[in-house]
Amino acid sequence: MSSDSSLGEVPMSLDSQSPYVRTQEYISTPRYSNLSGTPGGPPYRVPYGIGNNDSDNSTVIVDAKIFNRDTHDFAEGDFVCQGFFNRVDLGGFTRRFNVSQWNYEMRRQAQSVLPFLSLGPLSCLRDIEYVRSQGFTLLLAIRSRKSAPARLVSGDKAAAAAGIMADTVDVLDNQELISEFPRAIRRINDHLAGEDENPNAMVLSGLQQKRKVLVFCESGNERSAAVVIAYVMVMLNINAAEATYMIQQRRFCASIEDPMKRILAAFESILSAKRDVERARHTIPPHIAATLAPPSSSPILTKKRSFQDHRNDDHLMDDDEMEVDGDGDPFFERKPSAPFQDRVV
Fold this sequence. Notes:
CATH topology of the domain at 65-284: Protein-Tyrosine Phosphatase, Chain A
Radius of gyration: 31 Å
Largest sheet: 5 strands, mixed
Helix content: 25-40%
CATH superfamily of the domain at 65-284: Protein tyrosine phosphatase superfamily
Order of helices and strands: EEEEEEHEEEHEHEHEEEHHHHH
Low-confidence stretches: 1-6, 26-64, 198-207, 297-301
């Protein structure tokens, strides 16, 4: 900075007598974030400034798509229960969020990802009044199966004190998360639709209490963040890079490292294949789809004969029926040989 008696401090780029030379023009086009890190793979290019800013710059509209049964690319029963779209307020599936300044203390609290879904650490459950004030009705823990018996990561105590529900998704390691994503997503959606029959659900004026799920792990930055990212990928039909960016904008301390990014990328491929299957199922005429049904079990199709079956056949053969001369056997004259033989020099 250089000082001027009339203008005070001014940036060096605005000082005509400054030796500073601008090396890059400042432009208003979106900057990009490399969220990949996969060796040899293309980087995820996600613009920081996705969406349109309101005049007060307090709200960012990332996507205005309407969420309903037609925009959900998966069959009912995979990630949502039957009748889900008639029992849940679909207005909560939005990517609109308020932009707020992140501070270090916020890592100990839960952040709202969707109106009915929050992500946070285990430590936020120590304050029961905080749990009640946030309106949580389900505390879903994502934890290691090895430490599960010790119940170090559990929402049971806080749920009992607040009069709400608690559940867990246990995995052996992060790699097993990819097989547990569908169950975790279905667990969240079953709670939203009331499939879990919450005994503590209150009914006021004929309306059921609004349901809200807190997904947490020990830090709220790793496994639980990956589950929430997978949920957003499925329910909002976005790819892993966009979902990761969306979660990190809400919980800035979420740590999605390269191995977890590869797991999410693999889950994205699985979702893509499921979408293709579902689209093909809807495009094939019903009379043709009926002919493509999997074949029913038939007694003609038997399992491979075992060694015991061959031995029983040998016992049933009479002595005079046994072949002793090798007629018809092209390998009868073949003599056994060792696998290795010395060479004569």
